[in-house]
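Lab notebook, design round three. We kept the backbone fixed and only want residue identities now. Task for the bench partner: fill in a sequence for the structure below.
Input structure tokens:
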């Protein structure tokens, strides 16, 4: 009797959905939603915009969060920066580092010492977050490097006619941000950097990226050997693709910028179309690979901050992104180097600074790289 008296009421409570069952189901749904919220991490990539990544448990969050390196750009640059205009949208400097150290040494990237900014993009996202513009700065561009404070506190003096990609190796990422701001007059809201091994790991983690080439590309230096047509590239092949220069155009850096921009759009489209939230294990692998090789400004140097920024960028569609090369002309003293072409460059930077439409005349570069 005692047993039936205690079990019967439990059955009655479960069988009364209008009174008890419905709230219980509601509580379960809320708990499940809560788990999903904590288990989903949204990251900003490279060249990259929004990568939705999933994981479960605090230790996963802690592990990924600890992977990210942060650079305090505001402290390093102080007040000597362009004004942030209320209509300027968001501007992000994205760097691809070509360090040959550590995991990068086995990737066929050459034997140069130190690290350089192998790829540099100014990503402009207008107010409304619907369309983005990516402006590539050729690495061989001669620029005026401003006086900068290095990570060890020492000062490096200003210098004229230095190669843009040498600024990183001499003075670090904060000085690259300062150089870009001074040459453009555009204030960088954020900075992100990913190195070679992280790039390769990201591509492999998502299962490769599909690209189409109109012409065959054979480059012994990068190891790229592609026939004309459509190919699905793995991480190593993708790295060779974005680094090749001798197999296209005139063999200069200008020719490969087009390949880098083509690949960036293909990568973003691949990430966007994959249901990464539906595969926590795959998402975690991607996030772990990426964060291990990711450096950002201190305002983005945590998963929470990246997630907040990523959510604000969710409306940006890679298929509508416009890719532009900074208009450059061959240098009159050294034809192997280029300089910003005027008045195109000034017009381009002004459009980004004021969040205005970029005139077609500002997109034409006298130096084409073939």
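Proposed sequence:
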């Amino acid at each position: 009797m005692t047993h039936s008296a205690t079990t019967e009421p439990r059955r009655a409570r479960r069988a009364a959905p209008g009174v008890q069952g419905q709230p219980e189901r509601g509580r379960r749904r809320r708990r499940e939603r809560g788990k999903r919220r904590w288990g989903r991490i949204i990251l900003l990539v490279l060249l990259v915009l929004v990568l939705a990544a999933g994981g479960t448990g605090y230790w996963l969050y802690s592990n990924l969060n600890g992977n990210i390196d942060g650079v305090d750009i505001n402290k390093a640059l102080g007040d000597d920066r362009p004004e942030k205009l209320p209509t300027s949208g968001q501007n992000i400097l994205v760097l691809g580092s070509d360090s040959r150290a550590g995991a990068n040494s086995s990737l066929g990237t050459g034997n140069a010492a130190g690290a350089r900014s192998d790829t540099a993009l100014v990503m402009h996202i207008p107010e409304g977050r619907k369309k983005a513009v990516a402006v590539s700065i050729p690495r061989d561009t001669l620029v005026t490097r401003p006086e900068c404070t290095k990570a060890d506190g020492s000062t490096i003096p200003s210098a004229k006619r230095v190669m843009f990609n040498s600024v990183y190796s001499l003075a670090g990422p904060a000085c690259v941000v300062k150089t870009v701001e001074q040459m453009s007059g555009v204030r960088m809201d954020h900075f992100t950097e990913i190195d070679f091994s992280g790039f390769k790991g990201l591509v492999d983690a998502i299962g490769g990226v599909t690209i189409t080439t109109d012409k065959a590309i054979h480059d012994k230096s990068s190891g790229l050997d592609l026939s004309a047509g459509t190919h699905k590239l793995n991480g190593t092949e993708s790295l060779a693709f974005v680094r090749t220069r001798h197999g296209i155009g005139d063999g200069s850096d200008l020719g490969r910028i087009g390949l880098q921009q083509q690949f960036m759009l293909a990568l973003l489209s691949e990430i966007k179309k994959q249901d990464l939230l539906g595969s926590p294990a795959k998402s975690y692998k991607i996030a772990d690979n990426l964060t291990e090789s990711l450096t950002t400004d201190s305002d983005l140097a945590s998963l929470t901050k990246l997630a907040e920024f990523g959510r604000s960028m969710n409306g940006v569609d890679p298929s509508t992104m416009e890719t532009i090369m900074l208009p450059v002309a061959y240098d009159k003293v050294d034809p192997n180097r280029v300089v910003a072409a005027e008045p195109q460059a000034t017009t381009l930077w002004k459009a980004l600074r004021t969040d205005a439409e970029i005139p077609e005349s500002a997109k034409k570069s006298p130096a084409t790289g073939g």
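Keep this in mind before ordering anything: The two ends are 93 Å apart (CA to CA).
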